[in-house]
Structures are given as C-alpha cells and as structure tokens.
Amino acid sequence: MKYRLGGHDMSAEVLYSQIQFVSVISEIAESRGIQIRVCSDFEAFQKALKEQDEAPPIYPMFDPACSFVDPANGFWIMGVDDKGELVHTQAVRRLDLSNSSLAEHLSLHYQKYVIQGNAIDSIRSNYSRAPGWQSITGSVCYHGQVWLKGGKKGYRDRALTATLPRLALALSFMKWSPDFIFGFINPLLACGGLAAREGYAHMEPGIWHVPDGHDSDQTWLIWAGKDDIEHLMRFPPENLFRKLAAKNPSREAISASTLETGRDGPGQYLLI
C-alpha cells in the first residue's frame, strides 16, 4: 500500500521509517534537556526571538513584515529547556523556482538573506555565483535561522549539530518533497565539517565577498537534492550522535569569534 505525502507517493514502510527518523531526533533532543516545538506562525517566531537576548534577529526571509511567509510555504522549529527558555531555532521557507533558478532568485532577492544592520554593499561587493546555483530550480527550500545556545550552560556541540538540523531537512521532505534544500555557511565552519554533520551532501565555495575582503566573511552555498535527503533519512542519527558525543564531549573546537559570524549569510551570526 502507498500513501501520498508532500506531493509524492511512498510505501507505508518508507513512511514509517521517516516517522522514526523524526522521532529519534526528538528523543535525542529530550535526552539533552531540549523540548522540540514546530510551528508556522512567524509572528510568534519573531516574538520568541526578541524575548531571547542571545538569539539573533529574524531574517527578512522569515519576517512576515518583509516576506510573504505563512503555513503554506514555511515553518520553524524551536527548542526550549526545562525552564522554558529558548535555546535553539531553525526555519524553512519554500520557494517556487519552477521558472527560474537559485542564481536568478538571489540576484534579485539577496537582501532577504541578510539581517538588519549587515546589508551588503552591492556596488563594492564582489558577487560570484557558485556553479550549482544555476542548476537549483523547481521546488526549493531555504533552510536558515539556525541557532543553538552556546556558553558553559549551552548546547553547542558536535553531537547536537549532527542531529537537530536534520529535523528541518526531514520535515521539509515529508511536507513538500522539494527538489532541493539549500543554506549558507561560513567557510571556516564548512571546512570543519559542519555542513556534513547537518546532513548536506554538497558544498560550493564562493558566493558573496563583502567589502573588507576577509576570507571569514565569505559565505559558501550548501545544498542537498531530493534523492540526497531521501537517502539520508534511511539512517536515523542515533548511532552518529552517540559516537560524536563520546568522541567530543566538550564544546565545538572553533573560536567564539567564528561562531558569532554566521551560518546563514554574510555578516550574520547564526552559526552553530
């Protein structure tokens, strides 16, 4: 028997395995004292971010005052601790690029991927396209606003960064079955393996070069195709989580300054 989910048919066995994938991630989060919540009310998302001093501002792509984002094309994930404090965020926005490409979309809308106060100087900046931009088309999801509370009482370690972001990939796949999911990452964290831990199969250097020219200010494209995500979901991450937790019980071996410069875009500080 097959069921139709997210615009595509799947067997009951596959559907069950994907539900297990999501369930395992929730269980891992709970084992670390994080309760996961999923919602599509982006005004509530913005309010939650404002109430957490350590959390970054909302991106224009997820701000209902700047973008048309609603339950039909977006959702967000938050994690709270046992005191109800916000300790984790990520969000997904679906884009219809059936008549264009990611290259064309970003040429027109790059400002929506930059938080307020960190706008790119479009005249002085060196704007370079990664090869994959032109081939990313169709139903496409942007995965951003990724943040995990750091510090001595925080949750920022290799085990959780290999677990929590995969929840957004899985839910996007189950809800929309997109052709591609993409995001942005700081090159230092990319070279440290963060993109692979998050579940992304492809990474391309380049993208935006901001005026001061520092390598740490470049932003790289990370992406996964539909087949990549479907394959990823065959492997619930509990074994990987255990191995990473045992191997690296301490926090990320990356400088605090790097962690504050941006998983999602130039001049932004949502890195985990």
List descriptors.
two-stranded antiparallel ribbon; disordered C terminus; 10 helices; 7-stranded mixed β-sheet
Describe, in plain words, how this protein is organized in 3D.
A hairpin with a 2-residue loop joins β1 (2-5) and β2 (8-11). The strands form 3 sheets. The chain has a 7-stranded mixed β-sheet, sandwiched between helices. With 272 residues, the protein is an alpha+beta fold. α1 packs antiparallel against α5. The longest helix is centred in the N-terminal third of the chain and has 20 residues, at 12-31. The protein has a single domain (2-259), classed as Aminopeptidase (3-Layer(aba) Sandwich), CATH 3.40.630.30. The chain has helices spanning 12-31, 42-51, 102-109, 158-161, 164-176, 187-191, 194-198, 226-232, 238-247, 256-259; strands at 2-5, 8-11, 35-39, 74-80, 86-97, 126-127, 138-148, 180-185, 202-204, 208-209, 220-225.
State the low-pLDDT regions, or none.
Answer: 250-262, 265-272
CATH class: Alpha Beta
Mean pLDDT, to the nearest integer, reads 81
Tell me the CATH architecture. 3-Layer(aba) Sandwich
Shape: globular
Give me the CATH superfamily: Gcn5-related N-acetyltransferase (GNAT)
Helix percent band: 25-40%
Number of helices: 10
Our measurement of the CA-to-CA distance between the termini, rounded to an integer number of angstroms, reads 40 Å
Count of individual beta strands:
11
Fill in the CATH topology: Aminopeptidase
The gyration radius over C-alpha positions equals 18 Å
Strand order within the widest beta sheet? 3-4-5-7-8-11-9
Q: Let me know the largest β-sheet.
A: 7 strands, mixed
- Which structural category fits the helices and strands? alpha+beta
Number of domains: 1
The run of helices and strands is EEHEHEEHEEHHEHHEEEHHH
